[in-house]
Each structure stands twice: as structure tokens, then as C-alpha cells.
């Protein structure tokens, strides 16, 4: 990965729908060289995909909640069972195994607090191996980005 690859990636993070021609112009490359570099970055797994970023407030998912999850056991089978289950829950946008005072940190999007209460009672407590949860409702989203610093 060289400086030109990083430049391409910075531009693609700003606008994933940019045409190859426009990307090449912004980066000072020929369209063929630009296409080859982007193709290589995809083949090497540096670029993992493209997506549209949506406004959660307009799609009945205005409330963001972070949930600390402590499992009742810290064994490989308990971790695997929890991970398998949480992958199937659409309200959970992110799930991270963490080191520290709890096992997982979940990022959840729901419509409102009533929807979260239903999610907590119907879905979260039904997940295998959960001993304890702590909920943190987001009052203000100060910074949210998908862009990696390059």
C-alpha cells in the first residue's frame, strides 16, 4: 500500500459512488491505472464493500442505545452461542467482545424507549448466557463516521 492507494481510499470514503473517471482525475491517475489499483484493493480485501448511509431518524430507528453485556460463563462455547445469536438480531448494529468489566458491547438502534423496552424484554434477555446488562441511551450523537483516518 503506497501513498496513491491511501489517496484513492480517502476519496472513496468520501464518495463511494464516484465514477472511475472522476476518481482518476481527483487522484492524478489515468483511468486504467485507477481502475487497476481499485481492483487490487478490492481483491486484497482492503475495500470490503460499498453501502448507502441512511438517516436512522427517517427510518423509525432514531434512538441509539449502547448495552454492556456480561455473560454467566466465559467459556468458548458460551461466547460462540452468544455471538451466533446476536448476529441474527437486526436491531443490533454492532457487537464487540471487549476486555474489562463486561464481555460485550452492543450498539442497538430502535424507534424509541418503548421499542427498546420491548427489545430488552423480548429479545435481549432471551439471548443465551446473559447474566447482566447495562443500558446507556444516547442523548446526543456528537460524532459518527465510517471514515478511517488515512
From TrEMBL:
PANTHER family noted in UniProt: LEUCINE-RESPONSIVE REGULATORY PROTEIN
Gene3D superfamilies from the UniProt entry: 3.30.70.920, Winged helix-like DNA-binding domain superfamily/Winged helix DNA-binding domain
Gene Ontology, cellular component aspect: cytosol
Highest taxon of source: Bacteria
Biological processes annotated in GO: response to amino acid
InterPro entries hit by this protein: AsnC-type_HTH_dom, Dimeric_a/b-barrel, Tscrpt_reg_AsnC-like, Tscrpt_reg_AsnC/Lrp_C, WH-like_DNA-bd_sf, WH_DNA-bd_sf
MF GO annotations: sequence-specific DNA binding
Keywords: Activator, DNA-binding, Transcription, Transcription regulation
Protein name as it appears in the record: AsnC family transcriptional regulator
Native source organism of the sequence: Sphingomonas desiccabilis
Amino acid at each position: 500500500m503506497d501513498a496513491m492507494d491511501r489517496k484513492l481510499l480517502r476519496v472513496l470514503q468520501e464518495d463511494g459512488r464516484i465514477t472511475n473517471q472522476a476518481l482518476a482525475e481527483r487522484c492524478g491517475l489515468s483511468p486504467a491505472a485507477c481502475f487497476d489499483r481499485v481492483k487490487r484493493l478490492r481483491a486484497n480485501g482492503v475495500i470490503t464493500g460499498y453501502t448507502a448511509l441512511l438517516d436512522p431518524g427517517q427510518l423509525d430507528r432514531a434512538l441509539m442505545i449502547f448495552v454492556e453485556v456480561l455473560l454467566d460463563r466465559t467459556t468458548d462455547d458460551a461466547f460462540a452461542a452468544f455471538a451466533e445469536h446476536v448476529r441474527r438480531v437486526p436491531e443490533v448494529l454492532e457487537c464487540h467482545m471487549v476486555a474489562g468489566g463486561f464481555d460485550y458491547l452492543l450498539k442497538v438502534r430502535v424507534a424509541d424507549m418503548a421499542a427498546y423496552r420491548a427489545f430488552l424484554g423480548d429479545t435481549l434477555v432471551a439471548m443465551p448466557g446473559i447474566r447482566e446488562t447495562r443500558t446507556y441511551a444516547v442523548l446526543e450523537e456528537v460524532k459518527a463516521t465510517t471514515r478511517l483516518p488515512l
